[in-house]
Specification:
heterodimer; A: about 475 residues; Amidase signature (AS) enzymes; about 40% helix; B: about 475 residues; nine-stranded mixed beta sheet
Chain lengths: ~475, ~475
């Protein structure tokens, strides 16, 4: 049987590449073969020709470049020059970008090899991975295909979890990397807002959007962040702070770190197995000299998370997607007036979920409603940020289960008005409201399905976040987890 | 019943920066359509705006010229609406915090100065250009993203003349501060007028009508005055003014209905999150202000108070920035300011007009022209000769001295002794003329000067001759 290299970590692959035991071309061929066999419906566009051509040019290993020749996949809302990009929406069918997103450019410069563009919830709006124009993306840990993998970065999560590539690009506006990471047993990460350039990431809600990554261990993530973080003149919001040497930091001792667990969020989680595993990781952390305290947060703030997120993200989304009018790119439907042309493109191009969000977002921005909805949500966002910052005055991190359950079945119904849904299922957007670095990693399994926990740290303390997550990872036994094939 | 017009102007000025407001595509007028575009200008997904520093500098210059408060924190907002000329589906503009607020400018009406308040000045981006045909429309994105400033006056103008003077003044400021071409015909300065009428003494404003896209300064006065008359007639006839948008037809000299405004469009303004607020240092603002070239009003003041020009000549010189630049250059080479101004305002101006050229295409450089002016000033040649020299300088592309030689003009004789000798000779030969002069016959002086000229073959300096002859006659 042929060895599956793609299930290995970046670090392991780098060793093999340097020793010339494998070549970038072999890795690319294997990743493409696996991608073709994959049944999770995760691919928007297979970059077979592009990947093989590029991999062929890589002959002499770069010893100091961890990403040299490493195959990876790209959520289909990153602009990729000459490679079709539609964000899983019919409104952009056939659109071929003329430029590379900054993260894509940087990864190319590092000679990482892009294998395919992956599915997402349409235009990155959604958390289920079922709303893209190609239909449902399945969770590879469930061979019966009855469970979702989560979204919106569903395709990137599914293929990384299936061991097709060692890492994937995603984007995170509410929890779009960190939530599927929990359902798919992956490390899922969003950095501080402004740490990685967003230039070329199709905007959903710019004040919340971040580039994110999936990996199967924390160390791999440190290389990716070092390679992609930093000032970019194309994104004037990007930070000019120097990029840390994250990898040097991750194995340092965590003794003395202070971690806060928010009581009110933990309390609304019903799943005892998840709670037990979570508590177990806390005990392990304490063993390593970490201080873990349970702290309180105002329930009214927590209940407001989801509505606040919904108002702000939908409002911003209506405006950011107003460019999709069929005139410049995407399918064009001829008509008698420009209004009709736009109406056709948008009526035919967007699914009902997107339309619902746009209607809601426009409603929230209308001048007669703005005070009651959009501005009120902005003010509440400020209140949330203050409450979180107050905790982080005394603690290095906030630590919580990433989700209240394992990946739900497609047939499961959740009570959208329950605290469990409103709070435990949606608290990860705290990381987006505050712009803080946040990482989900697997801490346990139930019924064969993984679940994760989430660490959120202070601004620009990505290194420290990875450091403590690395310490947690040591004790879970789930480092390098992936869903083995049939 | 008597009505009082209330007029406010919104002026859009295209800035002549090298690149666009938020992208690095060049700002060019008249290039091949759709060749001056960056991905952002067509709103390709994922593109992000970066603020053009020079546009901010230019905006600050104008704010300063208009005595405005300058907000040292730059904020941008989105103005959302769907239209075929708006690539992103929103325009990046400044809604809540315009860079400039609460200023004024002064216009001169019948010799009196009137202050017109200016509410705000904000930065934004232009849309793409549309050309409509019967069954299709062409879009040219070269213009999309061109930096604009919008200057909004307070409703303090009262008639067409004031409106015109106001626009003239804004134009002069943006042209002199070197931030725009200010060409209404080419659309680099565009003016929308809001007019309403109210009974004299009433506080509340009446229903306002907007006149859009007036493309020449003189039309502004005509359009406004026509509209005032139209609304007055309607009101006197007991009819209501409808809130509508009209355009000015210069052929018919009237305003024509474009569309009736139903509910105002809700632009759903909210902050542009892709641009974090930019804090301007005091040094930056100061440097922007100091980088502004001298404005027209300051030049005019200098011409009058330093150069001793009269108001008319000074005003004429500054009415065209390039002429005043030429004049400034000219004054580096000659101190005969009045004469220099005359030559520019009369001879040079008429040459340019006749040949349909601007001063920039005028073939004689300031230094060269100054040499001619110097010849005239020291009476080396008389004014008729000077015009011949001027014509030859242009025609033969030679200096004033060369032209004078070429034309065989010998210098006027200004040697007093030499002139005196001839005067004495002439007086000796014409005793009757002396008697006539003493008896007050005006013609006698002219006759005697003519005789001196004749004897010297026209070479003596006429002014010197005149002076010496008068002196001598008094003695006799």
């Amino acid at each position: 049987m042929i060895k599956n290299y793609c299930e290995l970590s970046i670090e392991q692959l780098h060793d093999l590449l340097v020793k010339k035991e494998v070549t970038p071309l072999m890795l690319a061929q294997q990743a493409i073969a696996l991608a073709k066999l994959d049944k999770s419906n995760a691919i928007e566009y297979l970059m077979e020709k592009e990947a093989l051509e590029f991999a062929k040019t890589l002959s002499e290993p770069e010893v100091d470049n961890m990403l040299w020749g490493i195959p990876f996949i790209i959520k289909d809302n990153f602009s990729t020059k000459n490679v079709p990009t539609c964000a899983s929406s019919n409104v952009l069918s056939g659109y071929v970008p003329v430029y590379d997103a900054t993260v894509i450019r940087k990864l190319k410069e590092k000679k990482a090899v892009a294998i395919c563009k992956t599915t997402l919830d349409e235009l990155a709006m959604g958390g289920t991975g079922i709303t893209g124009h190609l239909g449902v993306t399945f969770n590879p840990h469930d061979k019966t295909h009855s469970r979702l993998v989560g979204g919106s970065s569903c395709g990137s999560a599914a293929l990384t979890a299936a061991g097709v590539v060692p890492f994937a690009l995603g984007s995170d506006t509410g929890d779009s990397v960190r939530k599927p990471a929990s359902y798919a047993g992956l490390v899922g990460f969003k950095p501080t807002w402004s740490r990685i350039s967003r230039f070329g990431l199709f905007p959903f809600a710019p004040s919340l959007d971040t580039v994110g990554f999936f990996t199967r261990n924390v160390a791999d993530l440190s290389y990716l962040l070092e390679a992609t973080a930093g000032r970019d003149d194309n994104d004037s919001t990007s930070s000019s702070r120097l990029v840390d040497n994250y990898h040097d930091q991750i194995n340092k001792p965590v003794k003395g770190f202070k971690v806060a667990v928010i009581n009110q969020i933990l309390q609304v989680i019903k799943d005892q197995d998840i709670k037990n595993s979570f508590t177990k990781t806390i005990e392990d952390l304490r063993q390593k000299g970490v201080v873990v305290d349970y702290v309180d947060m105002d329930m009214s703030i927590l209940s407001s998370l989801y509505p606040t997120y919904f108002v702000i993200s939908c409002a911003e989304a209506t405006s950011n997607n107003a460019n999709l009018d069929g005139i410049k790119f995407g399918p064009y439907y001829d008509a008698k007036s420009y209004e009709e042309v736009m109406m056709n493109a948008r009526t035919k191009g967007f699914s009902k979920f997107i339309k619902r969000r746009f209607v809601f977002g426009s409603f929230a921005l209308m001048s007669e409603n703005q005070n009651d909805l959009f501005i009120r949500a902005q003010k509440n966002r400020r209140r949330i940020v203050e409450a979180v910052n107050k905790i982080l005055e005394n603690y290095d991190f906030i630590y919580l289960p990433a989700a209240p359950s394992i990946a739900p079945k497609f047939t499961d119904k959740s009570d959208a008005l329950s605290d469990e849904y409103l709070i435990a299922d949606n608290h990860l957007c705290i990381g987006n409201f505050t712009g803080l670095p946040s990482l989900t990693l697997p801490i346990g399994k139930k019924d064969g399905m993984p679940f994760g926990a989430n660490i959120t740290g202070r601004a620009f303390e990505e290194g420290k976040v990875m450091q403590i997550c690395s310490a947690i990872e040591e004790t879970t036994g789930l480092k390098g987890l992936y869903a083995k094939g049939e | 019943m008597e009505f009082e017009p209330v007029i406010g102007l919104e002026i859009h000025v295209e800035l002549k920066t090298n690149s666009k407001m938020f992208s690095n595509a060049p700002v060019c007028y008249g290039k091949e359509p759709n060749t001056q575009i960056a991905p952002l200008d067509m709103a390709f997904p994922g593109t992000m705006p970066t603020v053009n520093k020079n546009a901010v500098i230019f905006a600050i210059r104008v704010c300063n010229a208009l005595h405005m408060n300058i907000d040292k924190e730059i904020h941008f907002d989105r103005k959302n609406y769907f239209y075929s000329d708006l690539p992103k589906g929103y325009q990046i503009t400044q809604n809540l915090r315009p860079i400039g607020s609460n200023g004024y400018l002064e216009i001169e009406i019948d010799g009196k100065t009137k202050k017109i308040g200016i509410e705000r000045l904000h930065m934004e981006e232009d849309t793409c250009k549309q050309i409509h045909f019967n069954d299709f429309t062409l879009l040219n994105y070269n213009r999309a993203g061109t930096p604009l400033i919008e200057i909004v006056s307070r409703p303090e103008l009262r008639n067409g003349e004031e409106a015109m003077k106001y626009v003239e003044m804004i134009r002069s400021i943006v042209v002199y501060s070197d931030v725009s071409d200010g060409k209404m015909e080419e659309g680099s300065l565009r003016c929308d007028v809001n007019i309403s009428l109210k009974p004299v003494g009433q506080k509340e404003f009446g229903t306002k009508v907007e006149i859009k896209n007036i493309n020449s300064i003189s039309y502004i006065q005509k359009a406004v005055d026509f509209e005032i008359e139209r609304q007055t007639k309607l009101l006197l006839a007991g009819e209501k003014i409808v809130q509508e948008t009209r355009r000015y037809d210069s052929n018919k000299n009237e305003t024509i209905l474009m569309r009736v405004k139903t509910d105002a469009v809700d632009y759903k303004y909210f902050p542009e999150d892709n641009i974090t607020p930019i804090v301007l240092s005091d040094e930056f603002v100061e440097a922007a202000i100091n980088s502004c070239p001298e404005l027209a009003e300051s030049k005019k003041y200098r011409y009058i108070n330093q150069f001793g020009l009269n108001n008319y000549d000074a005003s004429l010189l500054i009415s065209d920035k390039d002429v005043s630049t030429y004049f400034d250059e000219l004054t580096k080479f000659t101190k005969h300011y009045k004469l220099a101004a005359n030559w520019l305002n009369v001879d040079v101006a008429s040459y340019c007009n006749k040949n349909f050229i601007t001063i920039n295409a005028f073939p004689v450089c300031p230094k060269s022209l100054s040499e001619l002016i110097e010849l005239v000033a020291k009476n080396d040649i008389n004014s008729n000769q000077a015009r011949e020299v001027f014509a030859s300088m242009i025609k033969d592309n030679i200096s004033a001295i060369e032209a004078k030689e070429k034309l065989g003009i010998s210098s006027q004789i200004s040697d007093s002794d030499f002139v005196m000798n001839i005067i004495n000779e002439v007086l000796k030969e014409n005793p009757q003329a002396i008697v006539d002069f003493k008896e007050g016959k005006g013609r006698a002086l002219g006759f005697l000067i003519g005789q001196v000229m004749k004897k010297s073959q026209g070479k003596v300096n006429p002014k010197l001759t005149n002076d010496l002859l008068l002196e001598e006659l008094k003695k006799r």
